[in-house]
Design brief:
By secondary structure, the protein is of the alpha+beta class. A hairpin with a 3-residue loop joins strand 30 and strand 31. The chain is globular, with a radius of gyration of 27 Å. The protein contains 18 helices and 35 strands. Helix 1 runs antiparallel to helix 2, helix 8 packs antiparallel against helix 10 and helix 10 packs antiparallel against helix 11. Among the domains are: about 250 residues, putative glycoside hydrolase family protein from bacillus halodurans (Beta-galactosidase, Chain A, domain 5); about 80 residues, Golgi alpha-mannosidase II (Immunoglobulin-like), CATH 2.60.40.1180. The strands form eight sheets. Strands 1, 2, 3, 4, 5, 6, 7, 8, 9, 10, 11, 14, 15 and 16 form a 14-stranded antiparallel β-sheet that branches. A six-stranded antiparallel β-sheet has the order 17-29-30-31-34-35, with helices on one face.
Length: about 800
């Protein structure tokens, strides 16, 4: 019997980290489930301060050139100080902002005698049921992708009175009528806040009456239906009196019309967009709900992980996490969080939406942590590691589109700071596709390889699908990033490298002082090695296709994808140059402790347990270090051991992926114990402790969504792997996962895998989309070559002695 995939509480949410998220990719909310006051904190993914125009501020090409010469002389502290001084005055990204709050205030306080609040991952609905002495209530809320609305219904056994109003965000006007309401807002024209600016609010926001300097307009319209009673429009809200049922259908739109179009002078018509959206609410709530569930389940039901129930499924979620800390024998909670990660990505990244940001889609603060931006030195990439293994290919489209939109600013950044062709992107990106350096320390600000890293996501997705139409869509992105990386390589005594360089956010000690600038770094070179390999593989695939079909076969979709370039096929000169230089790039080096070297020298680390694992990029998400490179493989393990397990939430998820690739399942048991520690945001003692909040959102802390997404990718990785030219079944099963099954996982080559296991045997079934031969290995058991015929299932297994069973 299929288990329930439900997050439950026995009390309303009192803070954001207890509420439940809903979303349709573009539009979302956190639902509190209140009995006196119900609160929906609304978000729409284009609500950012600012407008187009990357000012290319901060450090200069001359400063970078000077830092390079200093680094070549071993004067690393001077190079660091020079770039830090040069970067003063750099602008940071703009800020992802909240829409505001929809507030439902009930007429009188009630003494609640029974209460349950749940998020059903099978239906993507929040459900609330409660009783007071006189009445019983049921609430359902969801964000519909087909209808592009947030839908809320509250029913009761006896009449109740509730007032609908709105607050917070940047709302400027509210209008209420008997059948609905309209809410209007205006975002700041600019935010001048940087990471080091402090925590104040108003002083960083710039509002202007000049159209070219005005920020985003936004509007929300709600249609209200009731059964029984009356409705009365007031200046500050809509009062629904003595009703038995209340339904609200909320649609939200902004004036955003594209990353290169000004939201005021070239903005979209919000009223026209909302009129289209609200047509959905002309149908019944139940019809909209069933339509929403069917559309959502087409994505969610592609994968099904089943682990034994623990007996704790009926506990309040906070109590369940606390019980796990005492006794981590709750595999059902671990699988629930796997499903929660898939739910979250489905809810915040859809074709046509913006990509998932640091908080996915959800934010309730005007000044959220790190601006709730796209931090592309690990976090944005981690958001999308699950799309291949969980067969959610559609959900990567926003990331592809963002990278295509980054090319124009990225080309300017490459010219401005490095004087070369190609496209470069520093570590922070926003809605307006900023690619230039952000304010702050060179340890994070001097690192122009954000898009080059994201190319790894884009190409790995191709390896899962083997879809050449998709490959053509991403090829120009790959090629422009390759062009930049090729141009910034230079010859050193050790081989070709990028000089100077940093390793994201980490530092070393130079004569006892912290510094971040080295001659070169393993992270930078690993990104380039993998990008070059991926690019050459893409070139070969497209050449094979063109040789087989002829140039006349180029499709209309290809022409659209290459609308900014006449070149549909690879640049022959560039691809040949890349083939020649790739083996001459400085190789991965091993230090005196047997560890992967992070820098060009074996410096003393300033923070040996640093959260970033950037120097292990060649191992994951790269594919240059595998069990077929045993010396480097062992060095990765030594590096991970030195870093330790205790770290921030998202970093623990990345470590899960790393240990899974090392096929060390028992080590993952310990990481899970750390990751499932309850973090109470109101407890200052937990301000530095990674773990999860009561609603299972990952605590960096503060909240970052990448930990949830990375965890889901990590669970997929420990169940099946395919990065090293073989399919490995159960490569890193945690020691306490003695029994279970998973259906629908994807592996590279467009193969779908089902697995069942217990203490006696492991069985797997593979279905390929094409005819192909693959090597399949069951960890601890057999390895065999199998021939797969398109659409035909092939099954086999082995017992614990490693003997094949049919």
């Amino acid at each position: 019997m299929k288990r329930e995939r439900i997050l439950k509480f026995t009390t309303p949410a009192s803070i954001w980290q207890e509420a439940f998220p809903i979303g349709n990719g573009r539009l979302g909310a956190f639902v509190y489930g209140g009995t006196d006051v119900e609160l929906l904190r609304i978000n729409e993914d284009t609500l950012w301060s600012g407008y187009p125009g990357d000012e290319q501020t901060g450090m200069t090409k001359d400063a970078i050139d000077q830092a390079r010469e200093l680094a070549k002389q071993g004067r690393y502290r001077e190079a660091d100080a020079l770039l830090k001084e040069s970067n003063k005055g750099a602008r940071d990204v703009q800020i992802y902002e909240p829409f505001g709050d929809l507030v439902l205030t009930f007429e009188k306080e009630r003494e609640i005698t029974a209460y349950e609040r749940s998020l059903d991952l099978d239906t993507a609905c929040v459900n609330v049921t409660y009783r007071d002495r006189d009445n019983a209530f049921e609430e359902t809320c969801f964000a519909s992708a087909p209808a592009q609305e947030i839908c809320l219904r509250i029913c009761a056994e006896k009449p109740f009175t509730v007032k609908i109003s709105a607050e917070n965000g940047f709302l400027t006007e509210q209008r209420y009528e008997t059948d609905g309401f309209a809410l209007f807002g205006r975002l700041p024209g600019k935010s001048l806040r940087t990471v080091g600016s402090g925590k104040g609010e108003v002083e960083f926001f710039v509002f202007s009456e000049i159209p070219e300097e005005m920020g985003m307009r936004y509007e929300g319209r709600g249609r209200v239906r009731t059964a029984g009673g009356t409705t009365e429009a007031q200046a500050d809200g809509l009062v629904c009196k003595d009703v038995l049922e209340l339904e609200i259908f909320l649609a939200v739109r902004s004036s955003y019309a594209g990353a290169d179009r000004h939201p005021e002078t070239e903005g979209a018509d919000t009223a026209a967009l909302l009129e289209t959206d609200l047509h959905g609410s002309e149908r019944s709530f139940e019809v909209l709900k069933q339509e929403h569930i069917a559309e959502y389940q087409e994505l969610f039901n592609r994968v099904e992980l089943e682990l034994p129930e623990s007996g704790r499924e009926q506990l309040d979620l906070r109590e369940r996490i606390l019980q796990y800390e005492k006794d981590p024998d709750d595999t059902a909670l671990e699988s629930l969080m796997f499903d929660f990660g898939r739910y979250l990505l489905i809810s915040c990244s859809r074709p046509g939406s913006q990509p998932a940001n640091l908080q996915g889609l959800w934010n309730c603060e005007k000044l959220p942590p790190w601006h709730s931006d796209y931090t592309v030195n690990i976090n944005t990439e981690m958001n999308y590691w699950m799309t291949g293994p969980c067969r959610l290919h559609e959900l990567i489209e926003p990331l592809v589109r963002m990278n295509r939109e980054l090319l124009d600013n990225g080309k300017q950044t490459a010219k401005t700071y490095f004087g070369c062709d190609g496209a470069a992107c520093f570590h922070n990106v926003d809605l307006w596709r900023k690619t230039s350096p952000a304010d702050g320390s060179p340890s994070w600000a001097f690192w122009p390889f954000g898009a080059a890293w994201m190319c790894r996501n884009l190409f790995d997705e191709y390896l899962f699908t083997k879809n050449n139409d998709y490959l053509r869509e991403i090829f120009l992105i790959l090629e422009e990033n390759v062009r930049f990386c090729y141009n910034v390589l230079e010859k050193t005594p050790d081989g070709y490298a990028v000089c100077p360089a940093t390793s994201p956010e980490n530092m070393f000690l130079d004569h006892g002082e912290k510094t971040s600038i080295g001659l070169y770094t393993e992270n930078t070179l690993a990104i380039i090695r993998n990008l070059f390999r991926d690019y050459l593989e893409a070139c070969d695939a497209l050449k094979r296709e063109s040789d087989a079909a002829g140039a006349d076969s180029v499709s209309a979709s290809t022409a659209t994808a290459y609308s900014n370039s006449a070149a549909v096929f690879p640049d022959a000169v560039l691809s040949q140059s890349v083939r020649e230089i790739l083996p001459k790039i400085v190789p991965t080096k091993i230090g005196s402790k047997g560890q992967i070297l992070e820098w060009n020298e074996e410096f003393e680390e300033s923070e040996p347990h640093h959260r970033h694992l950037s120097h292990l990029y060649e191992f994951h998400p790269g594919r240059g270090i595998t069990n077929r490179t045993p010396e480097l493989y062992s060095a990765v393990k030594e590096s991970l051991t030195e870093r330790g397990d205790e770290t921030t939430g998202w970093s623990m998820a990345w470590k899960m992926l790393m240990w899974a690739r090392l096929e060390e399942g028992t080590h993952i048991d310990g990481l899970m114990k750390l990751l499932f520690r309850l973090n109470e945001p109101r407890d200052p003692k937990m301000s530095e402790r990674g773990g999860v909040y009561a609603n299972l959102l990952c605590a960096h802390p503060p909240f970052q969504m990448d930990g949830n997404f990375g965890y889901t990718a990590g669970i997929a990785e420990l169940l099946v792997q395919s990065h090293a030219d073989e399919i490995v079944i159960l490569p890193a099963l945690p020691g306490h996962w003695t029994k279970g099954s998973v259906k629908g996982l994807g592996v590279r080559g467009n193969v779908c895998v089902d697995i069942t296991w217990d203490e006696e045997k492991t069985e797997c079934t593979l279905i390929s989309s094409t005819d192909q031969k693959r090597t399949v290995r069951i960890k601890g058991g057999i390895q065999k070559e199998i021939s797969l015929t398109a659409g035909k299932a092939v099954s086999f297994g082995c017992n614990r002695a490693g003997e094949q069973v049919e």
